[in-house]
UniProtKB/TrEMBL annotation:
Keywords: Oxidoreductase. It comes from Palleronia abyssalis. Belongs to the nitroreductase family. Residues 204-256, 268-348 form the Nitroreductase domain. This is Nitroreductase domain-containing protein. Pfam families: Nitroreductase (PF00881). The lineage of its organism: Bacteria, Pseudomonadati, Pseudomonadota, Alphaproteobacteria, Rhodobacterales.
Amino acid sequence: MKTLVKNFLPVSQVDRLRDARHLFRESNTARIATSAQTSGLRFASLAKPLASAYYSILSWQFQREERAVLAGLAKYHAELQEDDANVFLMRRNVHRLEKGLLMQPRRPIFAKDYILETVNVYRKIVAEPTRSAESTAESLQWGYDVLSEYFAVTSPDPVIDHARGVFEKCPPPPGKCSNIKRVPYKRMLNEHPVTYEQLEQLALKRRSVRWFEQKPVPRDLLDKAFTVAGLSPSACNRQPFRFLVYDDPEIVEKVASLPGGTIGWKQNIPVMVVVLGSLDAFYSEKDRHVIYIDGSLAAMSFSYALETLGLSSCICNWPDIEAHEARAQKVLGLEAYERPVFFMAVGYPDPEAKVAYSQKRPLEVMREYNPPIDRR
C-alpha cells in the first residue's frame, strides 16, 4: 500500500499524509484504538486455543514460516523415503555418537535405537559421494572415524553386531584427507592463543559500519572469515545455513535494496552477504528456530574474523514482513524451505566515516545469577 501511494500521489501529498498519521497517533481516537488492541492481545494470549484462533483468523503473520517448516519437513522425509541418503541425518547422528563416546563414564552399550539408521545413511552417501556438495571427503572421513571408534569400544550386542556387519561392508571414504583421526579428543587446556583482553578489544573495535571504501574485497579474505564462521557451535553439528555472497556491483545494488535498514547508504556497499537458513535439515517442527540460532552464531564469528582482516560489516535486521519475504524469495531464487536470517554489508571501512556509539545495556541488567525457579 505504501508503494502504491508513493507511486500515484505527489511528494507533497505523501508528506502531508505522513504528517497526518504522526498527529493521529497522539489523538484520543488513536489511544482508544490502541487500548482496544491491547485488550484483544491480552485476551488472545490467555490460552493456546485462543492464540491459535487469533493467528488463524485475525493475523497471518506466521503463514510463511508455517509453509517453510512444512516444505522443509517434506523434503527431509522424502529423501529418507526415497533412498535413506540424507546428509543432515548423517551429521546429526554421527554427532550423537560423538556425545556418547565422550560421556563420563561411557556406557558399554549405547545408541542402539539409531546406530543401524546411522550406518545405513552413511553407506548410501559414501557409495555416491558426488551426489551432494555436502558429501565432502572431510565429512565422510569424520563419519567413518566416529563409526569405527564406536564399534571398537561398544560391547557385544545383537543390534550393534548387525550394524557392525553392515558397516564393515561399506566402501572407505574416497581419498584420505589427512592423518587426523576425527573422533572426540582432549583439548590442550594450557594453550590460549587469545587473551580475554584481546578478545574484549576486538569486540570493542567491531562496530556496525555503514560507510565503506569503494574498492573490491578480495574473495580469499572473505573465505578466511567464512572458514572461521564454519567453526561456530551448531545444534547437532548440522549447520543448517549457507552464506550467499554478492560482490558484483549491479547485483549488490539489487540485493542491498531488500532489507529496509539500508535506505540512505546501500549505494556504497561493496559486498552483500545473505545468511540463509535451510529448514530441510530437520525431521521435526521442534527445531524450526535452529536456523536462526546457528546462523547468528556463525555470523558473529564471521563478523569478528572480518575485523582481524581489516574489513568491517553491518548486520541488517530482517523482520518477518510478508511483502519483503516474497520479494527476497523471488530476487534470490529461494526454495520454499529456505529463509533469510538476515543480511550483512561487508567492505573496507571508510576511515573518515563515523559509527554509532551504541551504548550497551549494563552488565547488571543483562546478567542475573540464580534467579528464582520452581523447585517443586
